[in-house]
Design a protein that fits this description.
Elements: H1 9-20, H2 26-33, H3 38-42, E1 45-46, E2 54-55, H4 72-106, H5 118-127, H6 137-153, H7 162-167, H8 170-178, H9 186-196, H10 205-234, E3 240-244, E4 254-260, H11 263-275, H12 277-282, E5 289-294, H13 295-305, E6 309-311, E7 325-330, H14 339-343, E8 349-352, E9 363-364, H15 372-387, E10 402-406, H16 410-418, H17 426-434, E11 440-444, H18 456-466, E12 470-475, H19 476-484, H20 490-496, H21 499-511, E13 521-525, H22 530-544, E14 553-557, H23 563-574, E15 578-581, H24 591-605, E16 608-611, H25 615-633
Helix pairs in contact: 4-6, 4-9, 4-10, 4-23, 5-6, 5-10, 9-10, 10-23, 11-15, 18-25
């Protein structure tokens, strides 16, 4: 195998340590799986019932239908939308967990939590058409929770999701309604996909794909409510300076990595870590307890607290090989089961916390909102005890560490723009898009995938678009990649931004008192925080009276991997955005599905998928999509 598997040199530096110890990592497991099943890669295998598994011969020389008669188009469409349902279930479960934490707080059952952003609560209430005058905070929170809960449980199918209707442009809401793609209930949207893909139900590939569009809107809804409720509970992010890459681990501290997606756990771990500094010092850790982030939980605490991020999804095993990671505490989503095998070779404690996300070989510490403080203390005590058992012969320190600015929530971006025009904050952004100083906006998001060089596509596309004066936003594992690459700094703006983009970012930076440009890439948070970018786009669309599909805004998921990526990508297209995938989706076994997703859907929603595995070519195609939108607006 090529020794250089990642753009991130810290990964390339520590991977030989794993191989010397004969410990398998994601790259080794990928190699062992190669060549991967050709039927699966095309999406033409079906195991939805026990008549199968059935496979369609892509060369037309064998079976053209499964035992039940489903052809390649039906099978591919069913497989795809089941993935969308899986992603929707994951994101909406995250939102539901956050919602129930808010409800526990309201009912006095979650003493460790509080409403940290009172103004955000009032703003959300206003957005949901809840009257706030004369009501105390808990009453407002109770009504927000009730409206939110109804989006999970509403039985009247004629009424659309409140959170979707109130956070998207009216024109987009009407378009979705006309398509029959505005769900009434998040859970029902997932359930409907499972029902219609059962054997003997929906066999029309186009109708199935429309069902996927509908479910993806439910996914968007689960994400936006999760983000907004998290801001209410934990604070709305504002720009701050942090750091990134494996070098954030400290030799003289108890190092704990929080990994997963849900800030309900990680926020408390961060709080209690501050209280237990002396206990760590007694164990010999002079610098106390050092919390670092991995994956989207890392993005959550980085955005709000400045906690440094160590790495992202694909390289989550790598910090263990430093020999100084004392504990990894995980919640849910994107946690590799292999961590148990990796950590057993070191002193590192792997701790699971969710009833629905256990791993054989890990220590399980139950985490619930009402007893969260006690659980957090147990976790940190276990990490301190592990620190005592470090093996000096297994220590491999890494010097790879860079500065990274984070915390660019929607409110933070609008706040920065208000320094240029307090009366009309969006006007400077619009003016610079119209005059061409900013050609357009690209949101870089998504996971990592062993099929492409780790982190490389994110970095390449960002640099290519920046020099063409495209404003860059980032979420999820993409933001981790770009932070580690040093692209979330003013220095990166000076080095890589085109002249006019650099001028705009410098003007805003000076206006907010930084005396340096804003970072080249604005860190908007975790994968559920993609909704923050939609909020900015919606505000722009509403201001000029157009739908989202008219804006010069594009999306890129250049290392996409999970079912959540399927659901996010689909709602991006459903909302009207050109959306790049850097890994070929498992749909090529159906010409109908492929054509709909990359072409025909444009006539339905205004968005479409761009599939391009070469990052430089992808940047060119994204730029062309931006130019097409600009021409459509006459600018």
């Amino acid at each position: 195998m090529n020794n250089k598997v990642s753009f991130d040199e810290a990964v390339n530096e520590l991977l030989p340590v794993a191989r010397k110890e004969k410990i398998k990592t994601a790259w080794d497991r990928y190699e062992a799986q190669s060549p991967q099943c050709g039927f699966g890669l095309l999406g033409v295998c079906c195991r939805l019932c026990w008549l199968g598994p059935c496979r369609i011969d892509p060369f037309g020389e064998g079976a053209t239908a499964g035992v039940c008669g489903a052809d390649a188009h039906t099978i591919v469409a069913r497989n795809l939308i089941r993935g969308i349902a899986g992603g929707t279930a994951s994101h909406s479960d995250h939102g539901k967990h956050t919602l129930h934490t808010l409800i526990d707080l309201i009912e006095g059952k979650a003493p460790a939590y509080s409403i940290k952003d009172e103004q955000k609560l009032k703003n959300v209430a206003a957005k949901l058409n809840i009257e706030t005058e004369g009501k105390d905070l808990m009453q407002i929170a109770k009504e927000v929770a009730a409206v939110t809960l109804e989006d999970y449980s509403r039985q009247d199918s004629s009424v659309g999701l409140t959170w979707a209707k109130q956070t998207l442009p009216a024109k987009r809401v009407e378009k979705l309604k006309a398509l029959g793609a505005m769900p009434h209930n998040i859970d029902a949207a997932v359930s409907e996909i499972m029902a219609r893909t059962h054997i003997g139900v929906d066999a029309d590939p186009v109708n199935l794909l429309l069902g996927g569009i509908k479910c993806s809107v439910a996914d968007y809804t689960g994400m936006v409510l999760a983000t907004e409720l998290s801001d209410i509970l934990f604070g709305t992010p504002q720009p701050l300076l942090s750091s990134a890459n494996i070098g954030v681990l400290k030799e003289n501290a108890v190092n704990i990595a929080v990994n997963g997606h849900n800030p309900v756990l990680s926020e408390l771990v961060c709080d209690i870590a501050l209280e237990m500094k002396e206990e760590a010092a007694k164990a010999g850790a002079k610098e106390g307890v050092n919390i670092v982030g991995i994956c989207c939980t890392g993005n959550e605490v980085m955005m709000r607290r400045g906690i440094p991020i160590a790495t992202n999804f694909l390289s989550q095993e790598i910090p263990v090989f430093t020999g100084i990671l004392d504990a990894m505490v995980v919640d849910t989503q994107c946690i590799m089961p292999a961590l148990a095998k990796v950590t057993e070779c070191y002193h590192t404690e792997l701790i699971t916390t969710m009833d629905t996300a256990k791993i054989p070989g890990a220590t399980h510490i139950e985490f619930h909102a009402h007893s969260g403080i006690e659980s957090a203390r147990k976790i940190i005590k276990m990490a301190i005890e592990a620190y005592r058992h470090r093996d000096p012969k297994k220590v491999n320190l890494s010097s790879h560490k860079v500065a990274a600015f984070a915390g660019f929530s929607t409110e933070a971006i609008v706040g920065a723009l208000s320094k240029l025009d307090a009366q009309d904050p969006l006007k400077p952004l619009l003016d610079n898009i119209v005059n061409g100083n900013i050609q357009g906006v690209c949101l870089l998001g998504g996971c990592n995938n062993t099929k492409v060089m780790h982190d490389n596509s994110f970095v390449t596309i960002a640099k290519e678009l920046a020099k063409k004066n495209v404003l860059l936003l980032a979420t999820g594992c993409a933001s981790g990649a770009l932070a580690k690459a040093g692209l979330m700094t003013p220095e990166a703006t000076n080095e890589y931004a085109g002249d006019t983009l650099k001028a705009v970012l410098t003007a805003i930076g000076n206006a907010v008192g930084l005396q340096v440009p804003l970072p080249l890439v604005l860190h908007m948070g975790s994968c559920v925080d993609n909704s923050r970018a939609v909020a900015v786009a919606t505000a722009l669309a509403n201001k000029i009276g157009v739908d989202l599909d008219a804006l010069p805004v594009v999306i890129s998921a250049s290392e996409c991997m999970s079912e959540k990526a399927m659901s996010i990508g689909t709602w991006c297209v459903s909302l009207g955005f050109p959306t790049h995938l850097g890994v070929v989706p498992q749909v090529l076994g159906s010409s109908i599905v492929t054509e709909v997703l990359t072409d025909k859907v444009k006539d339905i929603t205004g968005g479409y998928f761009i599939v391009e595995t070469d990052p430089k070519a992808a940047a060119e195609k994204l730029l062309e999509a931006i130019k097409q939108r600009r021409r459509g607006l006459g600018i």
